[in-house]
User: What shape does this take?
Amino acid sequence: MQVDDLATSGSKQVTARAANLVACRSCGTLAPMGQTACRRCHAALSSREPDSLSRVWAWLTAGVILYIPANIYPMLLTKTLGSQEESTIVGGAIELVHYGAYFVAFIVLFASVAIPVAKFFAIGLLAWSVQRGSRLSGHRRMQLYEITEFIGRWSMIDVFVVAILTALVQLGFLASINPGPAAVCFALSVVFTMLSAQSFDPRLIWDSIEESDRRAER
Ligand SMILES: [Zn+2]
Assistant: This one.
């Protein structure tokens, strides 16, 4: 297809691949298909990330698996006058409610239960819909992708809450708070889920739209 044809093709969307071009994912420069490295930023070029979906599933599985010990093992180890208490994520939130700290409890539950679980589902649904060509429209899939990108930024809140709590209580003489083994699992789970979302090549969404368009034309 020539560039002139692209201009006159009207409302029908044309992907870079259909125009024999490949876009750099880091700086956006267009290069002719077949070029392997970006001329401007030297990043590797590929029309579609190879094995994007397999990597999405692999990282997502690792993230979900680590989320289990993150909830079973203690997140906080609290020492007060010689006695040690351990609290898990949910247990800690319930304790906070008992102390009347509803807002902090809400943040903890939101950041460490609602966000990760929503992210698992969003990434899984996105990958599954591209793989299976489900009835989800291209626009919906793009929205789903934007949501995962957006909530990804907030997933480390819980680790920050633990860090802040630790710093706050460490200042007192009678009590000390240390992060438990769940904190490490949780942080790793968040990192793996982020890698999973990052492995997703959003251009795959266009391919699945093209495919469903073709199916509709028939
Ligand atoms: Zn580039």
Summary: The two ends are 22 Å apart (CA to CA). Helices lie at 3-8, 52-72, 89-98, 102-132, 138-152, 157-170, 181-199, 203-217. The chain has two domains: 1-47, 51-217. The pocket of zinc ion is lined by residues 24, 26-27, 29, 38, 40-41, 43 (CB under 6 Å).
